[in-house]
Each structure stands twice: as structure tokens, then as C-alpha cells.
Design a protein that fits this description.
Layout lengths: L6 H8 L2 H24 L6 H19 L2 H12 L5 H27 L3 H16 L2 H6 L9 H28 L2
Helix pairs in contact: 1-2, 2-3, 2-5, 3-5, 3-8, 5-6
Length: about 180
């Protein structure tokens, strides 16, 4: 109503409420990842550069996850308890997988590996990132958004944890050429 559109227009472009929510989630996720991709641009390749780029990227992703709107959407999807599989699938496919693919693209720029091959690894990295600080905030065990220093420390820790595996992938890729 506020935008001056009709329900028919919404149905035409988004299908239903879940489609509209999915489009909003995807737009926010793409915006977050686009900003991180631009920040890294065509950064040089190499282990140290990858570690730094990964830490900064994960920090940006964690900040996105910790935004009040992101927390609210995640809580709402989880609260449906599977009663609305369409909403859950839309959130996962257009939210989570958008972040996974964006992270895979950033890592691929440094490793010279197809981003599609890196998607499962990027997914695991995001699960690592969300453990601890994010989970406590999501569950309400922490009041408010964590301090900048905590977010940075969590992102750096997650990056350090996964760097040996990424380095091994780089070596395997180099060995196959």
C-alpha cells in the first residue's frame, strides 16, 4: 500500500509472502557481499593476502549477521520450526547460499580455484564463524551487539583456523597444473 502497488503486482513479481521475504533477504545478502567483494577487488594472490582478506571478509559477514534485522529474520525463520518449509528454503537458498557463494568467490580470487569447488568449504567456514559469539547473541545470551574488538577477534580466529586447509587446497591446485 505504501509503495502504491497492488497485491496482484506483488504476486506477479514475488509469488507470495515467502517470495517477497526471500527477495528482501537476498538483496541484503548480495549487498553485504558486494561491498566485501569491492573492498578486496583484485587483491594480490598469496597466503598472507588471503589470510588478511579472509579475516576482513569474515568480519564484514559477522557484522552483517549481527545486525538487528538479520538476527530478527533468522530468529523468525527458526521460530517457524519447519512449519513453513517455503520460508525456510527461501531463507537458506537466497540468504545463506548467497553469502556462501560470495565468500567462495573471494577465496577463489586468491587461490585460482573454481568458486563452485570452494562452496562447500565456504559453507563450513561460515558455520565456524557463527559459533560462539554469534550464537550467544542470536540466543539472547548477550545483550546488544558485541563490541568491534570482539567481532574482529572472532573473524581473525576463524580465518586462522581455516587457513591451513585453504593452503592445502592451493598446493593441491598448483600440483595438478
Amino acid at each position: 500500500r505504501l509503495a502504491g502497488g497492488s497485491k496482484a503486482t506483488l504476486v506477479k513479481y514475488f509469488g507470495d509472502r515467502n517470495g517477497l521475504i526471500a527477495a528482501a533477504v537476498e538483496e541484503e545478502a548480495r549487498g553485504a557481499m558486494a561491498g566485501l567483494l569491492l573492498e578486496h577487488g583484485d587483491a594480490g594472490k598469496g597466503g598472507a593476502d588471503l589470510a588478511a582478506a579472509l579475516a576482513v571478509t569474515l568480519e564484514g559477514v559477522l557484522r552483517f549477521y549481527l545486525q538487528p534485522a538479520s538476527l530478527t529474520i533468522y530468529r523468525a525463520v527458526v521460530a517457524t520450526g519447519g512449519d513453513d518449509p517455503g520460508a525456510a528454503a527461501a531463507f537458506y537458498e537466497r540468504g545463506h547460499l548467497t553469502i556462501v557463494n560470495g565468500l567462495a568467490d573471494i577465496i577463489a580470487r586468491h587461490l585460482g580455484i573454481d568458486p563452485a569447488v570452494l562452496a562447500p568449504t565456504a559453507d563450513s567456514i561460515l558455520h565456524t564463524l557463527r559459533s560462539g559469539l554469534y550464537e550467544m547473541t542470536l540466543l539472547g545470551l548477550r545483550a546488544g551487539i558485541p563490541a568491534d574488538e570482539e567481532i574482529t577477534a572472532r573473524a581473525v580466529s576463524a580465518a586462522h583456523l581455516v587457513m591451513p586447509a585453504l593452503e592445502q587446497m592451493r598446493q593441491e591446485q598448483a600440483g595438478s597444473h
